[in-house]
Amino acid sequence: MGENNKSKTAMNNPIEVSLLRHFEGVEDPRDNRGKEHNLLDIIVIAICAVISGGEN
What we know:
By secondary structure, the chain is mostly helical. The chain is 46% helix and 0% strand. The protein is flat.
């Protein structure tokens, strides 16, 4: 009673989505001399910051 069939269906058929897999084709425009961190790590951290409400 009052259950949403769309969400019930979505939970029964989850689609695996990986942030790393989604962004793995992004080319790193940075010069090799200045790279201290992996670009994918930076992207994932930035996404987590946005999701959690980070502002700066």
